[in-house]
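testing teh design pipeline on a random one, pls ignore if ur not involved
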């Protein structure tokens, strides 16, 4: 193809890297056929991530500057996964005769999308109002898994006495250390071992390391491939989002805390369908209930994740629809 798809997406230690992580499988698959470039607001964490993943990128000082530059670049296709963009931004992008492929996390009216992608397990096509010719890719067939997650499937048997604790790359509300305190007696009583993932943007790295040494937990720092660790564990204490999907794919029992608004509906849906162990909400004000977490771990011991609920073909299904869309508009590839 002699065109380009530009991804509009942001990530940082403050907002996390979830949007970047779920765009990456699509981008890596698409770049086999078409040029890919990521446009983001400048930050050094993201620069490092793009370089490590061999991604072509451009940085801008503001959303206004980013959108303004679209006038001067000759490409047709925009892929968005961003809460920074509002309806007027989408209207502006369409006014430049661009086609929009968008990942969406909330129900609503998305009349500017040419392809709407909702890799959320709780939604159906009817939850989104779009133009009649919009292509909707919604539900468990479109869950996005990175290659390293797919490659580790079935290579490790879940160990019945391992628990992994991971609250993403940032642990936005700094609750990991509190979790380690709360589970300590349960771990001893049930003869479990603990792996603690310390993300690159944690604020309390040294105190978490000290806690792990005190309790005899193993900590893994700045780990960009947690799939083998998750796969080897019987239970994972996590926040929702990408890691939740990975647990369900790898048959590791997820004990799930919600720490972002876009995770709420999916986690509630999975709880009601008895597909996860729901532990509660995390935010700045709310403190954990120690006894609730211990009860949830008791429940997790006898819990089984349904095999095959999520498969590895989500990104291929999405990429197939994107390429078909482009091909139907007389692009040659």
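output:
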């Amino acid at each position: 193809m002699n065109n380009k798809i530009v991804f509009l997406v942001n990530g940082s230690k403050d907002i996390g890297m979830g949007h970047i992580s779920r765009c990456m499988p699509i981008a890596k698959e698409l770049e086999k056929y078409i040029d890919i470039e990521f446009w983001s607001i400048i930050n050094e964490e993201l620069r490092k991530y793009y370089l490590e993943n061999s991604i072509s990128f451009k940085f801008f000082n503001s959303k206004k500057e980013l959108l303004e530059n679209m006038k001067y670049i000759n490409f047709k296709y925009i892929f968005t996964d961003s809460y920074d963009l509002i309806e007027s931004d989408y209207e502006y992008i369409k006014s430049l005769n661009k086609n929009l492929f968008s990942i969406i996390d909330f129900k609503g009216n998305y009349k500017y999308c040419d392809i709407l992608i909702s890799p959320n397990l709780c939604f159906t096509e009817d939850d989104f109002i779009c133009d009649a010719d919009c292509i909707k890719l919604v539900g468990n067939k479109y869950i996005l898994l990175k290659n390293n997650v797919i490659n580790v499937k079935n290579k490790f048997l879940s160990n019945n006495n391992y628990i992994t604790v991971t609250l993403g790359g940032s642990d936005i509300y700094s609750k990991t250390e509190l979790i380690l305190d709360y589970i300590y007696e349960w771990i001893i009583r049930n003869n479990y071992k603990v792996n603690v993932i310390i993300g690159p943007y944690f604020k309390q790295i040294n105190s978490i390391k000290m806690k792990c040494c005190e309790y005899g937990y193993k900590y893994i720092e700045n780990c960009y491939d947690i799939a083998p660790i998750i796969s080897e564990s019987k239970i994972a204490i996590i926040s929702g989002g990408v890691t939740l999907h990975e647990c369900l794919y790898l048959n590791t029992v997820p004990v799930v805390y919600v720490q972002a608004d876009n995770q709420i509906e999916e986690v509630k849906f999975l709880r009601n369908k008895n597909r996860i162990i729901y532990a509660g909400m995390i935010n700045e004000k709310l403190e954990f209930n120690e006894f609730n977490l211990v009860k949830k771990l008791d429940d997790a011991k006898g819990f089984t994740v349904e095999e095959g609920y999520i498969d590895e073909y989500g990104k291929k299904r999405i990429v197939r629809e994107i390429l078909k869309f482009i091909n139907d508009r007389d692009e040659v590839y």
